[in-house]
Amino acid sequence: MKSNQLKKLFTQYKMLALLIAIALIWSFFTWHTEGGFITPRNMSNLMRQMAITGIVACGMSLVIIAGEIDLSVGSLLGLLGGIAAVLDVTHGQPLPVTVLAVLAVGLFIGLFNGYLTAYLHIPSFIVGLGGMLAYRGIVLGVTDGITVAPVSPELVHLGQGYLAPQLGLLLGVLLFAVAVFLTYRQRASRARHQLAQAPLWRDGLRLVLIAAVLAGFVTTLNSYEGIPLPVLLLLALLAVFTYMTTQTVFGRRIYAVGSNMEATRLSGINVKAVKLWIFGIMGLMCALAGVINTARLAAGSPSAGTSGELDAIAACFIGGTSMRGGSGTVYGALIGALVMASLDNGMSMLDVDTYWQMIVKGLILTLAVWVDVATRAGKR
User: Of 9, 85, 270, 355, whose CA is between 20 and 30 Å from 207?
Assistant: First the structure.
């Protein structure tokens, strides 16, 4: 009985459990680094590291929700980042041309992966596995197996630039205003349809917590240099993807395809087109992550993105995306990305051996999938 109650409680408050887990992880590393982990400089580095995985996780969450998987994203990230470096360094292309070209290539490759999966009926696991090998080979050919550097200052600014502190404060106020507006609209909508309302104090407490998190986030980053531009991009993507998955027909169709593909097809929805565009979006996210990664490193490396697919998939599973499809959120995947980045950052600060880092991350991925299986079993 207690086991079932615990499963039900965890299912209902999964995001809260993740936030508590992050607090415990941060407390552990802060204690063992004598406060070094939570310094503004390290927090800024942590957020910047998390942004790369987070951008890929935005696309990966849609792929997994639709009941598919893409193992090629790490290699594709490396390939697109290498193309950005070659266009910038070798061919001297302006930044807008470089970014648009990389986005176009990413979209094309993503749609190609989607076509192979949706229309040629090749399992996405095999398409991803083949892409993982092929794209890594192509990036070695594009870069001649050497690091392409130095990239232009304009490109570097995308990965290493900061938002001015005054603009960071304004952003924090705007985000809180959006949270208040959405809460008000939700309550008004439920009242209009005569649906049960959550207690007012609960929404008020949630807004207070949001205000506290935003204040801490902006204050901490502003005390170093400001909000990193990759983090700003990630926040924009969070808003776009959350709106798309919750407020658009296409978003609802993604969940429908993952929940019951045959029933969705029989209802008249073009399942193949939905899957095609999901992989196209995944390609765009890899392009953005590749450009930002090259900008952050100020060079195009043939080894960039190695194991990136594992971090993105782990972030989605940790954030509550079900491996069976049909369930998950983008903001949950980003919280999962923060968990992974926090572990990477903290263990690196403690000089933990690489093999132990891999073991810990593997165990956490296994635990996340087990939790998904256990909580879903508790619902039946």
Answer: 9
Backbone phi and psi for residue 203, each to the nearest 5 degrees, phi listed first: -65, -40
- CA–CA separation, 359 vs 158, rounded Å? 33
**Residue in the structure block whose two tokens are 């999901």:** 278
Q: Rounded to two decimals, what is the model's pTM? A: 0.92
Of 327, 330, 339, the C-alpha closest to 379 is 327
Distance, CA of 354 to CA of 342 (rounded, Å) = 15
pLDDT digits (tens, 9 = 90+) for 111-152: 999 999 999 999 999 999 999 999 999 999 988 889 998 999
Give 300's strand partners.
148
Please spell the DSSP secondary structure of 261-273, one letter per residue: HHHHHHTT--HHH
Give SS3 for 223.
coil
- The Cα 244–Cα 278 span in angstroms is 12
Tens digit of pLDDT for each residue in 191-235? Answer: 888 888 878 888 898 899 889 989 999 999 999 999 999 999 999
Nearest to 61 by CA among 328, 375, 275: 328
Q: Which helix (H) or strand (E) segment is 163 a member of?
A: strand 162-163
> How confident is the model at residue 1, as a pLDDT?
44
- 76-122 confidence digits (pLDDT tens): 999 999 999 999 999 999 999 999 999 999 999 999 999 999 999 99
CA distance 346 to 338: 12
Within 8 A by CB and 6+ apart from 220, the residues are 40, 43
Would you tell me how many other CB atoms lie within 10 Å of the CB of residue 291?
29
Residues contacting 221, CB < 8 A, separation 6+: 40, 43, 44, 47, 168, 227, 228, 231
Residue 92 · residue 66 · CB < 8 Å: no
Structure token pair of residue 122: 């090749």
Whether the CB-CB separation of 127 and 301 falls below 8 Å is answered with no
Q: How would you class 299 by CB atoms within 10 Å of its CB: exposed for 0-12, middle for 13-18, buried for 19 or more?
A: buried
